[in-house]
Amino acid sequence: MLFVAGLLLGLYNEVVSAQNFTSAQTSIISERLAQGAVHSWEYGTRIEALLELNAPTYSVMSFNAIPPPHSIPSNISSALGEVFTIAHNIVAARSLSNITGPQPLIADTSAGDPASIGVAVLLANWTGQGALDSLNYAGAAQDQLDFLFQNVSRTTDGALSHKVDQLQLWSDSVYMVPPFLAYYGVLTQNQTILGEAYTQICLYRKYLRDTAAGNLWKHIQLGQTGDDDGHWSTGNAWAAAGMLRVLGTIQHSPYENSLKSQQDNLAHWVYEIHRAMFSHINSNGLFYNYADNNSTFYDASSTALLASTVYRLSLLGNIHTYIPLAEQVRKALLASAGTIVSITTTSTTPASSATSTALSGTATTTSGLLHFTPEGWLTPVVNPYSYGAQGSDSPEGQAFILELQAAWRDWVADGAQGANDAREARPRVLMIGVITVLHCLVIVIG
Ligand SMILES: *[C@@H]1O[C@H](CO)[C@@H](O)[C@H](O)[C@H]1NC(C)=O
Ligand SMILES: *[C@@H]1O[C@H](CO)[C@@H](O)[C@H](O)[C@H]1NC(C)=O
Ligand SMILES: *[C@@H]1O[C@H](CO)[C@@H](O)[C@H](O)[C@H]1NC(C)=O
Ligand SMILES: *[C@@H]1O[C@H](CO)[C@@H](O)[C@H](O)[C@H]1NC(C)=O
Ligand SMILES: *[C@@H]1O[C@H](CO)[C@@H](O)[C@H](O)[C@H]1NC(C)=O
Ligand SMILES: *[C@@H]1O[C@H](CO)[C@@H](O)[C@H](O)[C@H]1NC(C)=O
Ligand SMILES: *[C@@H]1O[C@H](CO)[C@@H](O)[C@H](O)[C@H]1NC(C)=O
Ligand SMILES: *[C@@H]1O[C@H](CO)[C@@H](O)[C@H](O)[C@H]1NC(C)=O
User: Fold this and answer.
1) 106 to each of 38, 351, 376, how far by Cα in Å?
2) Which of 90, 107, 88, 87 is CA-nearest to residue 99?
3) Is the pLDDT of residue 357 over 50?
4) Ligand 8 centre and the CA of 295: distance in Å?
5) How far is CA 170 from the centre of its chain?
6) Could you report the per-residue pLDDT of 131-160, keeping only the tens digit for each?
7) Distance (Å) from CA 401 to ligand 1 centroid
8) By the 8 A CB rule, do 246 and 262 touch?
């Protein structure tokens, strides 16, 4: 039995390893990300992609303990250096403005987006970067936290606004705020803040989940500038990925045993988004910009992030149901130019049925790829500054494809669970899925 499993895995590895970025291609994609990411949430998203891809010891998605080591292993010091450069530049710029007390890391119109940079600032403090450049990283992180808690408006039941000028909830916020709160809570041993990360997610799901649309999440609710009731694919992916980051943070922390039902719920809510989204996957392997609206364009950006969350849910939640589909999607995103991609969308068939062809093992550019420009930009993508319009260069899309690469790599290293299993999976969390969450508050005991 073991022998057969080993054979299957060996065979499987041969199939998957044929479709993989070369290190030169990963570098080009990373360069476009570095060049393009200049807004608050783009810094935060780039930080997360760099940690997951190049410094897994400091990534909450890996199996490493949180808090991470104070002293940085030498083989990842240059990878972390890129993350610290972002934190340094932002904290240094902040101190030029003479504002003291609660404030965001970058003052923009979003209340939620700047918090996404907080993870890098917390890491800079944790690893003692302030002793090298005299910046007060702990103070900057605390000011960001206090700004969220003291300045940002909330719904009556406590959901933090995503905007500064009005009370408005965006699905994007689930990736920006709760992962920062969770990391802050674990590093400072404050379970109230960790609990708040979960509470925010629970509240956002309450407002944005659309039961009339099979549990797809709406994009924007409340506020004066109008709702976006549509089911924006990137928003669904932001939500799933943000929930997984909080799940990973709790799971690898000393609070693992005291927040069991919260972890089960988070895994279940990610699975709920997968079930909703994958019923709308197209045969070319991409989602529409609005998943259930075929008048909108195809979007490789949301597709990459959502596919990454399938591998992460397999690793963190032991749920493999959508792995065969994610494998087909990943191969479609990495397909060679000229390939006619036709994935099997009707069932969770094993990955080997994807018909796209293999990448060249020695390619030094992305010019031979169906979904990349020769310069290394993912395409086609939504315009990240105008969510209803198609764009060309998307920094966040660059981060998403790197997160997909990192998630897939980690999943392969873990034995590619669920790859050859076409049966309907029986995820552990479905059993607790029937438990109704009556309120979103975490009661902190002791
Ligand atoms: C994918 O390619 C990279 C080089 O870009 C290599 O280091 C890695 O081992 C490959 N992964 C798999 C699972 O084949
Ligand atoms: C760094 O080295 C450690 C211990 O030798 C190893 O476990 C880890 O995989 C390495 N990390 C990277 C990113 O190479
Ligand atoms: C900050 O304070 C210093 C010293 O009081 C002053 O010279 C500088 O102009 C102030 N900067 C801003 C942006 O207000
Ligand atoms: C935060 O709120 C305090 C108290 O209301 C106020 O004094 C301060 O100006 C606010 N800070 C920012 C950055 O809005
Ligand atoms: C900053 O790091 C120190 C340990 O190096 C830790 O004790 C402290 O709680 C950290 N502060 C924040 C806000 O993370
Ligand atoms: C935890 O954080 C909250 C919010 O910043 C703060 O009010 C509380 O005093 C902290 N608890 C402890 C034990 O430090
Ligand atoms: C688009 O969706 C509508 C509504 O679900 C459906 O009636 C129509 O056939 C679809 N068109 C295409 C080209 O798939
Ligand atoms: C679908 O998208 C089109 C094009 O953006 C838009 O005009 C239409 O209102 C959308 N339909 C729904 C039901 O949201």
Assistant:
1) 11, 43, 28
2) 107
3) no
4) 6
5) 15
6) 999 999 999 999 999 999 999 999 999 999
7) 15
8) no
